[in-house]
Amino acid sequence: MSAAPRRIVLFPAAVLRRRAAEVTRFDDSLRGLVDEMVRVMREQEGAGLAAPQVGESLRVFVTEARPEEGEALGVHVNPVIEISGDETDLMNEGCLSLPEIRGDIRRPAAVTITSSDLEGRRHARTSDGMIARIWQHEFDHLEGVLIVDRMAPVDRMRARKSLRALERSAGA
Ligand SMILES: [Zn+2]
């Protein structure tokens, strides 16, 4: 079964603002979607990609971090994230759906993610590294939350021009 080729969806597409639906079937169409997401993530040189970013409002994301992060290629279906500890980090983030926009975002440093693999088996993993940051960014996409919602006001102001340009090119 070959999946339809997917493309990256840019702000302000409505699918990026929707709460994505739970995955209920672990079948070939899910595997085809995940294959396409991995292809698009690599093509765009991203560290992560959520299904809404290729136009599919489903609770699944993929990640690819450096090997030292301990998770080369991650597939997370129906993820749940729990914060461990009180520590937070401020880090600069970008997003494939918001080209040219970056901002400093404060997030919990350590989290545990529990998610299903492509066979529907649940796994839990804890991290306080870069991958913990990526999990939280991608999880936000499943809730319809974007980095512009979490940026400091000064960064959001700076992003305004780029956001308007994206809105104009979507309307054109
Ligand atoms: Zn993103």
| CATH class designation | Alpha Beta
Q: Supply the helix-strand structural class.
A: alpha+beta
Please report which band the strand proportion falls in: under 5%, 5-15%, 15-25%, 25-35%, 35-45% or over 45%.
Answer: 25-35%
The CATH topology name reads Peptide Deformylase
Strand order of the largest sheet: 1-2-3-6-7
Number of strand segments: 7
**CATH H-tier superfamily:** Peptide deformylase
Count of alpha/pi helices: 4
Order of SSEs: HEEEEEEEHHH
Share of helix among residues?
25-40%
Radius of gyration: 16 Å
Task: Give the cofactors and ligands.
Answer: zinc ion
**Total of domains:** 1
Large-scale geometry: globular
Distance between the termini: 35 Å
Main sheet overview: 5 strands, antiparallel
Mean pLDDT: 94
Poorly predicted tracts of residues: none
Annotated CATH architecture: Alpha-Beta Complex
Describe this structure in a few short sentences.
Helices cover 30% and strands 26% of the residues. The protein has 172 residues and is α+β, with helices and mostly antiparallel strands.
Can you offer a commentary on this structure?
The chain is of the alpha+beta class. 30% of the residues lie in helices and 26% in strands. The chain has a single domain (14-171), classed as Alpha-Beta Complex (Peptide Deformylase), CATH 3.90.45. It has helices spanning 28-43, 130-142, 147-150, 153-171, and strands at 48-50, 60-64, 73-83, 88-94, 102-108, 111-116, 122-127. Bound molecules: zinc ion. Zinc ion binds next to helix 2. Zinc ion is lined by residues 95-97, 137, 141.
